[in-house]
């Protein structure tokens, strides 16, 4: 063989993928830091309205969540497409709200029981009738601090 | 070959797979929480025997939302965009004559005799239909809270050269240290007393 013979071409050289894990790890860390664990799966549509004068909900352990909205597509056949209330993992009627609040309140430590906030996560297409029923129930069990959870944004976007 | 080409390369091809696996796990089990919103207090249920306090008509600012999302403010059909302005004009009116105990020295309003006496007396009454859409209701609430916030910011700027909303956020932040909180508490309270939020919601009418 001659000294200058061309080396045998061993196919295409492998693409260097060494930086791929780094990129994926970066994404992973991003998700790990900005998200929180889901504690219940949403069975209702939950597009919140926008508002600009919001206040942050501090301290997760002092919040009770109530979700309201139309059932998602997989539950539509069973529960219809009227807005419904979701407490924990099941659909409920407005009359269950009071009991639910009392139950949740009993689960919290004693010193927090008087400072709880109820966060209402309501779909923007829901009707006020349902919300009024919930509010009435909340008043009856003396859970007067509510937070209408919203996205940050211009409130006039809601009207379109 | 390997001896001559430096140290052998570690095959890291599967590392990406592992990282992807972790990533996908986090994607499905977590959510990005929205944890901001409009804070409101509901009125406590009053014992039925109690007489409701008498409030002068001129100190009440009525806002009615109908089922189509139209607004009736003080018996006048109003665009939602001018609600904030109207609410501010009402709250800031300070109609009590100077010299009377209710005189509002910091108000910059028009001081109309037929509008509210002073901010502490002024009440906004909000009424909505059962068919009103939630998003409309939130917009109205947002505008009313915005009216209070703007007036409070004005006073906070005058007294402490700082926005009220800013001070309040710092006060409510659990990371603020105690001595700073003590200082802020007084200021926040003072401003809140200048413009107390009096927003009453009537029980919802069934239809109109």
**Class from secondary-structure proportions of chain A:** alpha/beta
| Residues in β-strands, percent of chain B | 5-15%
Stretches of chain B where pLDDT falls below 50 for ≥5 residues? none
- Report, as a whole number of angstroms, the end-to-end distance of chain A: 79 Å
Strand content of chain A: 15-25%
Number of strands of chain A: 9
Mean pLDDT of chain B: 81
Helix amount of chain B: 25-40%
Order of strands in the sheet with most strands of chain B: 5-4-3-6-7
Helical/strand content category of chain B: alpha/beta
Instruction: Count every helix of chain A, treating DSSP H or I runs of 4 or more residues as helices.
Output: 4
Structure description:
The complex is a heterodimer of chains A (160) and B (208). With 160 residues, chain A is α/β, with parallel strands linked by helices. Helices cover 29% and strands 21% of the residues of chain A. Chain A has four helices and nine strands, in the order H-E-E-E-E-H-E-E-H-E-H-E-E. In chain A, the strands form two sheets. A five-stranded mixed sheet of chain A has the order 6-5-4-7-8, covered by helices on one side. In chain A, strands 2-9 form a two-stranded parallel sheet. In chain A, strand 7 (117-122), helix 4 and strand 8 form a beta-alpha-beta unit. The longest helix of chain A is centred in the N-terminal third of the chain and has 16 residues, at 19-34. Chain A is elongated and about 95 Å long. The mean pLDDT of chain A is 83. The radius of gyration of chain B is 27 Å and the shape is elongated. In chain B, a hairpin with a 5-residue loop joins strand 3 and strand 4. Chain B is built from five helices and seven strands. Chain B is an alpha/beta fold and 208 residues long. Chain B is 38% helix and 14% strand. A five-stranded mixed sheet of chain B has the order 5-4-3-6-7, covered by helices on one side. Classes of the chains: A alpha/beta (160), B alpha/beta (208). The interface between A and B is large, with 60 and 58 residues.
